[in-house]
Recover the amino acids of this structure.
């Protein structure tokens, strides 16, 4: 697909041609089979931890949006997959050097051509976001969408870092919980239920 064709499809909200650029969800999930996964959120509370080496020891490290990494001691250094829901500056892509970028947001108009045309690109299906939104009764964050997605993989262990459900602000901005459209109490309840039900999931620090 040329850039012009992409821009036209994005402007007209033509989902089929955009989805045709994506690998299948089953193919993405297969890449996690038998692996340990570190999913790194952007809560400021992660700065106070010494989780960096443990994060880097995972088979796959997934980070979110601009993925601020204040120090290797707390955040590690690796980024295998970058999951974004907003346009990502080229400077961040150079800094993070992910081997794969995946687009989680239902807002296709923000999807950059450079991301959509990259090898291994994945576009999260609208129906999955709608299902989760109905369950939470609020638009889901990128983090909880990834938790939901990983629950359908065959990863052996999935550890969540930097997820405190807005007990502290995000490293990626200064907005408070009241200034964003998400229900963090519902997302925390969703995640705690999954932690209880699925022994592969771990939250660091534990709830």
């Amino acid at each position: 697909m040329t850039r012009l064709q992409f821009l036209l499809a994005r402007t007209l909200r033509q989902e089929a041609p955009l989805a045709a650029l994506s690998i299948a969800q089953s193919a993405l999930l297969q890449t996690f089979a038998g692996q340990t996964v570190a999913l790194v959120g952007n809560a400021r509370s992660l700065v106070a931890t010494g989780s960096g080496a443990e994060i880097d020891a995972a088979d796959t490290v997934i980070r979110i949006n601009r993925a601020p990494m204040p120090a290797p001691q707390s955040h590690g250094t690796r980024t295998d997959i970058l999951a974004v829901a907003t346009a990502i500056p080229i400077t961040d892509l150079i800094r993070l050097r992910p081997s794969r970028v995946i687009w989680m947001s239902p807002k296709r108009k923000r999807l950059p051509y450079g991301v959509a045309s990259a090898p291994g690109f994945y576009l999260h299906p609208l129906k999955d976001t709608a299902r989760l939104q109905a369950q939470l009764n609020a638009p889901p964050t990128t983090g909880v969408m990834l938790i939901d997605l990983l629950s359908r993989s065959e990863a052996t262990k999935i550890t969540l870092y930097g997820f405190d459900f807005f007990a502290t602000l995000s490293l990626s901005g200064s907005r408070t919980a009241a200034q964003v459209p998400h229900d963090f109490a519902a997302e925390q309840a969703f995640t705690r239920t999954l932690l209880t039900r699925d022994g592969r999931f771990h939250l660091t620090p534990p709830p």
